[in-house]
Amino acid sequence: MGRKIVHPVAVEGNRPTRLTKSNYSKRPMKPSLYLIANCPAGCLFIMPKPSGEWLEDDIAHYKTVGLTDVVSLLRSDEIDELNLLDEEFFLRQS
Q1: Splitting the chain (94 residues) into consecutive groups of 10 residues, what average pLDDT does each group show?
Q2: Cα separation, 9 vs 7, whole angstroms
Q3: Ramachandran region of residue 88, left (φ > 0), alpha (ψ -120 to 50) or beta?
Q4: Structure confidence at residue 76 (pLDDT)
Q5: 17, exposed or middle or buried, with CB in 10 Å at 0-12, 13-18, 19+?
Q6: Superkingdom of the source (predicted)?
Q7: Residue 39 pairs with which residues in a beta bridge?
Q8: Overall number of domains in the chain
Q9: CB 67 within 8 A of CB 58
Q10: Is 60 helix (H, G, I), strand (E, B) or coil?
Q11: Residue 83: which region, alpha, beta or left (left: phi > 0; alpha: psi -120 to 50)?
Q12: What is the SS3 assignment for 46?
């Protein structure tokens, strides 16, 4: 069973907000977000798992573009194997 990780931020319209050219300058490739449905209070996206090596940067990117909630569907053994043990910690940081 996956675990739910929630961090309040804002998403408006059919795209993430606060996306600027400078957000992309630190790392050659940013994690992809895929819009799957518009919701009354914002948007719903799916995304690949964050990189264990770039976990803190990936999560900072998600916050910068305005993600509100992250729901991880990875099992505990997968979280450990993929080196994502600090994911919840970084998501809860403001």
Answers
A1: 43 44 51 77 80 85 83 90 90 80
A2: 7
A3: alpha
A4: 92
A5: middle
A6: Bacteria
A7: 42
A8: 1
A9: no
A10: helix
A11: left
A12: strand
Look up residue 51 and give its two tokens: 């990189």
Nearest in space to 42 (alpha carbons), one of 74, 88, 19, 8: 8
Question: Distance (Å, rounded) from C-alpha 94 to C-alpha 82?
Answer: 24
Distances (CA, A) of 84 to 16, 47, 53, 56: 24, 15, 9, 10
Q: Helix or strand or coil: residue 59?
A: helix
Tell me if residue 69 falls in helix, strand or coil. strand
Cβ-contact 43, 11 below 8 angstroms? yes
Q: Which of 7, 10, 5, 8 is nearest to 65 (CA)?
A: 10
Owner of token pair 């998403």:
11
